[in-house]
Amino acid sequence: MNPFQYRRAADIAGAIQAITPGCKFLAGGTNLIDLMKNGVEKPSALIDLNRVALAAIEPLPGGGLRLGAMARNSDTANHPAVRQQYPLLSQAILSGASPQLRNLATNGGNLLQRTRCPYFMDIGFPQCNKRAPGTGCGAIGGLHRTHAIFGASDQCIAVHPSDMCVALAALEATIRVGSRSGERQIPIADFHRLPGSTPEIDTNLQPDELILSIDLPPSPYAGHSQYLKVRDRASYEFALVSVAAALEFSGGSIRSARIVLGGVAHKPWRATTAEQVLAGKVPATALFEAAGEEAVAGAKPYRQNAFKVNLARRAVARALAEAGGVA
Question: Dihedral (C-alpha) 54, 95, 216, 46: value to the nearest 10 degrees?
Fold first, then answer.
């Protein structure tokens, strides 16, 4: 681990003022500290946020819910308002990591966690454009069973690891951030980036910005939503494919739908054309299977992960069936 300075912020203003080139914010540290130990992250300074008042979970004035960036994942998942109004988010968070890690990990840190691609995590592999731009992507010609089938580039085929972010994308959350210039809001759809030619840049968060909260709009999906996670083992494992499925009904028909996949791209992957397949239709197994087919249209798998296409298709159909009460 490289030498670094340690600074403890007392409030939001102090945290923002403490930002210097090469620094990192320290919240739960469940991902950052591992990366530092592995030699992947080498911050010049750590700014400890654990005394900054950003852990509140509270209603928004116009409806919806504000989740503080420093609220722990376990507190968020088990908050009564989240469980009642946004059960999809609660399900997603509780499917990730372990109880011990969820007790420590924060909402802001979850947004910023980095890929678990082994070529990125292990500095013994020289080829990783995300860790060392210009060195190539070891996964493309190597082991890529768990890698992307959507949105990849010839620079990087890693996937985003978060479960929480998949649900946030379905719920159309907004990320509120602050800097010396003031506050701004970033829609969750624009927060994470596809790799393109700059896979080392994971998000559109600027270096001088601090995540303050995740703002959720009022949701019509509380009664009909499902988070489905398919993984190699039953717990403490990242998704091969996950699906956040949410349905809004009008009478007996589907008024609107949200379908977002995890484990398949460099960011949560929203299947908008599959959502359109469902609009105005009566829920049925055949309909959900058709949506699953549409959700994987355009997938570009690699040699070892072609199974993900069929897995994603079936996972979408199953998650929709469970959300719609057809399963």
Answer: 30
Q: Do residues 285 and 298 make contact, with C-beta atoms less than 8 angstroms apart? A: no
Which residue bears the tokens 């722990």? 72
**Backbone phi and psi for residue 140, each to the nearest 5 degrees, phi listed first:** -60, -45
Neighbours of 243 (CB within 10 A): 31
Can you read off the two tokens belonging to residue 121? 């995590």
State CA 124 to chain mean position distance.
Answer: 27
The span from the CA of 73 to the CA of 243, in Å, is 19
At 75, the amino acid letter reads: D
Q: Per-residue pLDDT tens for 260-295?
A: 999 999 999 999 999 999 999 999 999 999 999 999
What phi and psi values does residue 99 have, to the nearest 5 degrees? -55, -40
CA gap 189, 272 in Å, rounded: 12
Q: How far apart are alpha carbons 316 and 157 in whole angstroms? A: 22
Quick: pLDDT tens for 295-312: 999 999 999 999 999 999
Q: How many CA atoms lie within 13 A of 105 on its CB side?
A: 26
What is d(CA 230, CA 195) in angstroms, rounded to the nearest whole number?
Answer: 24
Cβ atoms of residues 169 and 78 within 8 Å: no
Q: What is the DSSP string of 215-264?
A: EE---S-TTSEEEEEE-SSSSS---SEEEEEEEEEETTEEEEEEEEEESS
pLDDT per residue as tens digits for the range 19-66:
999 999 999 999 999 999 999 999 999 999 999 999 999 999 999 999
Give the span between the Cα atoms of 14 and 9, in whole angstroms: 6
Segment 118-161, tens digit of pLDDT = 999 999 999 999 999 999 999 999 999 999 999 999 999 999 99
What are the tens digits of pLDDT across the range 14-24?
999 999 999 99
Closest by CA position to 67, among listed 175, 209, 220: 175
Order of strands, edge to edge, in the sheet holding 241-250? 225-230, 241-250, 253-262, 269-270
